[in-house]
Amino acid sequence: MLKGEEMSEIREKIKAWESKHRESFAKESQPKFLSDSGIELQRIYTSLDLQEHGFDDMRDLGLPGEFPFTRGIDPSMYRKDLPKFRQYSGYATPEETNTLFKNLIAQGQTGFSLALDLPTQLGYDSDFPMSHGEVGKTGLILQSMQDMEIAFSGVDISQVFINSVSNAQAMVIFAMLLCLAEEKGLSHQELKGSMQNDILKEYTTRGNYIFPVKPAVRLTADIIEYCAKSVPQFWPVNVSGIHYTEAGANRVHEGAYVLATAFAYIDEILARGIAIDEFAGTFSFNASQNHTDFFGEIAKIRAMRRLWARTLREKYKAQTPKSMMMRLAAINGGSVMTRQQPECNTVRNTVAGLIGFLAGAQQSSLRTIDEVFGIPSEEAQILTTRIQQVLLFETNITGTIDPLGGSYYVESLTSDYETKIAEEIARVEDRGGMVAAVEQGYVQREIMKDAYETQRKFEAGEIVRVGANKFVMEEKPHMRNPYKADPQVEEKAISKVKKLRASRDQSAVAQSLDALKKASRDPKKNLVPFVITCVKNSVTMGEICSTLREVFGVYREPRLF
Amino acid sequence: MKAAQKKIRVLLAKVGLDGHDRGIKIVALGLRDAGMEVIYTGLHQTPSQVVRIALQEDVDVLGLSFSSGAHMTLVPEIMKLLEEAKIRDSVQVILGGFLPEEEEIAYLKNLGVKEIFGIDSRLPDVVTYIQGAMKGGEGMKGVIG
């Protein structure tokens, strides 16, 4: 802490410096230098700035593995465990997915994210009208427990970590995973894995929603509650920031809406009489690591981590450190890549990877340089892995924890982001919380404004994308690898599900759907056991979701135009 | 004295299950800022829902956004329904949101799609195109290749 005298001295020195170099400042290329969220960058940051931000070393920075976790959630961080990289995988049919899993396991992969096709994500079977033309295009077709069994046949799920990118119908996938575990002799206590299960972001950024907001949040909370009580090694929710960024949100909005979303889920569970420390430790997060504002991105992540810790302790009275820790995966997005001179994406990816590691993420996911053209090639996937390996094994950034900690700039910026994120969260809370803000269309409008502003700036050249709007050159046409779906995939999936429906114990199907319907009308009932019963009786994804649609209705987007 | 110019009416729609709407919302704002009347349907529309709105709202332009591969299934259906509703020639259909292949462009234009604005298109180009197409009146062929 600087004493008054020292502060005056520094202030005087800076004033003198500014006078002396006025000519140079007049030649600067812009009158102001701003971050994407309007935070103005000063010419320099000094110890005075820390003072003016009210920065207290032990209170605001603290020590790694200790509240408020600004420096990281673990006392050893990468000196002990390097961050993990996740592989995304999934082909259209359960059989192809099974082969892929076995190949990846043979190569030494121990975790993967399960990508599902759009009908599956939206709770439709392949023969539902809305599924036409969409079956198997974005991932696995999962219509029933049989498909799940085929996809994981011969796979020891106690040795692999499965993450399901599943939201609106997460409960069905979750029930299937529990049944799968049982079939493979694994108890609920032993089942490992994770689920995205972040429905609020679907309404605002990703569009894979089914039900209206409130019943959907009930389903989300049912899974979190169920895990808190009986599936302790499963991560039931991954509150997502990357989708906000990809939809165009600036960094303050991304940070605010991620946290406000997590708080909304917390409020829902607390209302069920469950203590904060019984479930908050099962929350995990993802946030973007986009290269477009190197220090801003690092500051945003540190600010989010600190704000989470502070809110959990001060507002929610959490006691357990695990509740207050933000377990974070850093992910970069395709929206900041270019199709022009795509080799430049290698640099963008490298800088992105560096951001996550300097910000203390637990996991890192990077795009491939050719994802802008279609399905990533194997070469590009290998390059992405090598980028992370070069960063982690060659640069020596892992030898100390939070290397940027104490930087005048980074701490001031972290504090600025924390303030602005907290202000936006307060605006959301003033509207009644994240659920209300989403129903009102407020969040959607803010993101839309951000996206439009970014487009305007890009077209005006204020945002530069090398190769695309600056340093443009004539190029040979690039190799494209668009996904070519097997035209038979839809037909085969339809005949498969029809066959299944005809071969089941019809009265068991009817009974289990009836029980689910009754239970879903009672907001106090946790629906997981009812969906498990359905799934065991070969009730299909579409049938379960149709029953829930009957009870809950479907979401109608608020009119923006 | 110049007669008051009728505002160009544009219906923007997301058909099918694809949830990516960043681009279409940007286009909506851009067209509105250029003085057009914009209606945006939101996500998950069916072909018949879209055509019904196009008919009801008496629109000049129908802009469809796709980023999964469903355009090859859904666009033919929409063109057929526009034909059945007898508005195929009075509504200019334009597409956006994806990177079209050469064969796709030919196929879609043969169906009656007037223009395709691939992913790297700029807003002013979309605005200019629509304004130009409207000035030319009915049956105007695609201007920008």
Protein model, in words:
- The complex is a heterodimer of chains A (561) and B (145).
- Chain A is an alpha/beta fold and 561 residues long.
- Chain A has helices at residues 4-20, 22-26, 47-52, 57-61, 94-106, 118-121, 145-151, 170-183, 200-206, 213-230, 242-246, 251-270, 294-314, 321-324, 344-359, 378-394, 408-430, 434-439, 442-460, 488-502, 506-520, 528-536, 541-552; strands at 84-85, 87-89, 111-114, 161-164, 193-195, 234-235, 237-240, 283-288, 328-331, 363-365.
- In chain A, the strands form two sheets. Chain A has a five-stranded parallel beta sheet with strand order 1-10-9-8-7. In chain A, strands 2-3-4-5-6 form a five-stranded parallel beta sheet, covered by helices on one side.
- In chain A, helix 5 (94-106) links the parallel strand 2 (87-89) and strand 3.
- Chain A is globular, with a radius of gyration of 25 Å.
- Chain A starts with a helix and ends in a 9-residue tail after the last helix.
- The mean pLDDT of chain A is 95.
- Chain B is 41% helix and 16% strand.
- Chain B is built from five helices and five strands; from the N terminus they run βαβαβαβαβα.
- Chain B has a five-stranded parallel beta sheet with strand order 2-1-3-4-5, with helices on both faces.
- In chain B, strand 4 (92-96), helix 4 (102-111) and strand 5 form a beta-alpha-beta unit.
- Chain A binds chain B through residues 118-119, 121-122, 124, 129-134, 137-138, 202, 206-208, 246-248, 335, 339-340, 373, 448, 451-452, 455, 459, 468, 480, 482-483, 485, 556-557, 559-561, and chain B through 12, 14, 16-22, 25-26, 28-30, 32, 38-40, 42-44, 46, 68-70, 72-74, 99, 101, 119-120, 122-124.
